[in-house]
Amino acid sequence: MDERELHIFLDIVSHYFESQTGKLPELGSPYLGERSALPIYDFTGVIGISGQRQGCVYFTARRDLLRQLLLHVGESDVSDKNLGDLVGEVANIISGNARRHFGPDFMISVPVVVEGTAKSIQVPSTVKAYILPLRWHKMVASLVVSLQ
Amino acid sequence: MSIKLMIVDDSNIIRSKITRTLGEHHMEVVATAANGEEAVAQFARTKPDLVTMDITMPRMDGIECIRALRRINSKVLILVVSALADKATAIQALKEGAQGFLCKPFSETDLTEAMDELLGGTSNG
Fold first, then answer.
1. Rounded distance, CA A89 to CA A81, Å?
2. pLDDT tens-digit readout, B100-111
3. Which of A93, A107, A108, A112 to mutate to test the interface with B (most CBs of B within 10 A)?
4. ipTM of the complex
5. Pick from B57, B83, B88: CB nearest A97
6. Which of A41, A121, A127, B106 has its C-alpha lying 20 to 30 A from B66's C-alpha?
């Protein structure tokens, strides 16, 4: 991954929040993460990437952010089931939109949703993981991109 | 007379959003499905006029589902609603028999405009 590719993901995340809520997220500086210390919040949506590029993309967020985001997209049912559904859909949209730049050989899986912070997310051991932190209405989330 | 709609998407939130938006535009949701297999199973029974179709779904994806629905009814209108934003996917979906393509994330206006285009400007009633 290079800086240009990181910016692709930053732009997609920004566009998602702006288009769905009318408010851009505050993006932190991306950084290289240690595999043992990757951010995992209350709900995480993981997309496996295969094809020309291999690895994974995951979006992880705190419950409060997802609840507010659900309400912004017009969904009044803020049950855990819908919070999980939303985090998976955000990961799906970010990864799917990236195909505009990476092309159709950037194959994405259906989202796998992980609930709770106790479990770790397995990213490829041989590939660097970049963490893109963000805040939206002072609530935190991160996008993690680990691509060969 | 309302247009009969089937919504195919593995996200409950997306299905709800489409139901809310198009329910206000003279469309009756006659079926929802979370994957292509469910959609094929419900299609013949509910006979929708129009289908919104996700692409990335478990068990049977949207492209395969479009092929299957086309074999049952060659005239049904299909709007693909997908996060896959590359041109190749849109072209493939259209070749397989979809009539429109809407990229996620979408607003309510994006959706009703796409429907208007598909229906020749009739979805606002």
1. 12
2. 999 999 999 999
3. A93
4. 0.91
5. B83
6. B106
